[in-house]
Amino acid sequence: MFDVFACFKRLFKIDNVCIDNKMFHLHYKATVIILMIFSVVVTCRQYIGDSIHCIFHDISLHAMDTLCWSRLKRHMDIEVMQPGVDTQVNHSKSVMYKYYHWICFILFLQAILFYVPRYLWKTWEGGRIKMLVQDLNNPFVDKDRKTERKRLLVDYFVVNLHTQNYYAFRFFFCEVLNFVNVVGQFFFMDYLFDGEFGTYGFDVFRFVGMPPEDSNDPMSRVFPKMAKCTVYKFGVSGSMQKNDGMCVLPLNIVNEKIYLFLWFWFVFLSALTGLWLVYRLVVIFIPKVRLYLLRGKYKIAHQKDVETINSWCKIGDWYLFYQMSKNMDMLMCREVISDLANKLEGRETM
């Protein structure tokens, strides 16, 4: 099992060049790692352990385990009484739990969807930041090489001034896509669990403080540990006979904890991403905020140089410069800021 987890080590790898931000990391790194680990845990329990165990009278139990599992798979004839098994079976009120054996695949699909914005941005970005900061983030490169790279970087920025908006807005689109994805997945899970997931975390939190006689465990309601399986077979005379059995679903002991954590994580991530988008709108539409951000990040540089650069930059130029500077040594960044400001001032006087 530890060999299975070893394949995720690349997700923990720290990139030499950062082309996004910490909020992006929460989506394509933290959340993907969480979902992939949960998918592996559920898969191991489902296909290696005992995922369903049914009890019938005078029928092969192994055969009934397989039959009830397959019927659950085809969304047939599994009647789950809430929160356990009721002796008064009413087919019109029985709840069909159709997700039970799909959980491991759903978690894996969710992990893929969280990586899609990162994949899109990495494709659109095309290694531009890595190319621009080449040798400027390596302390072992000789001085002449760094000087040449610094000159090329400043020249590139000046020559392509006011042409970077398309680059920046594609990244902003991916940030919006992160928000749409996490909110959309929350509603998808609510649909998957028949409207029970939307308040799942709140219901569990309230349940903890209730006295046992007045409580209805929401985890047992959404993820029942026992189900009633009805199987029909032909009798010796050819008539149809109904056989009822009780099935234990041990996998739901794991599922209920996984989705309780995911409920809180998705709520936290949705709220945080929503606030980040508000911040992004402020940065886009208020140039003075961009100046404050540059001043706060580059206190080591001369503030007049920072003001000069900000006054020349549109949002795309500002974003590209901000990303490049994140991947440079602070002393080198100070030199780049000084050279760039001087070149822009010289361009203004021409």
Description:
By secondary structure, the protein is of the alpha+beta class. It has one domain (2-130, 162-278). Helix content is 63%, strand content 7%. Strands 1-4-3-2 form a four-stranded antiparallel beta sheet. A hairpin with a 5-residue loop joins strand 3 (226-234) and strand 4 (240-248). The longest helix has 35 residues, at 251-285. It is elongated.
User: Helical stretch count?
Assistant: 14
Q: Which sheet architecture does the biggest sheet show? A: 4 strands, antiparallel
User: Given the helix and strand composition, which structural class is it?
Assistant: alpha+beta
Spatial strand arrangement across the major sheet:
1-4-3-2
**Arithmetic mean pLDDT:** 81
| Overall strand count | 4
Topology summary:
Elements: H1 2-6, H2 22-47, E1 53-55, H3 61-73, E2 78-79, H4 103-125, H5 128-132, H6 143-159, H7 165-192, H8 200-208, H9 218-222, E3 226-234, E4 240-248, H10 251-285, H11 287-297, H12 303-312, H13 315-326, H14 330-349
Antiparallel strand pairs: 1-4, 2-3, 3-4
Helix pairs in contact: 2-4, 2-10, 4-7, 6-14, 7-10, 7-13, 10-11, 11-12, 12-14
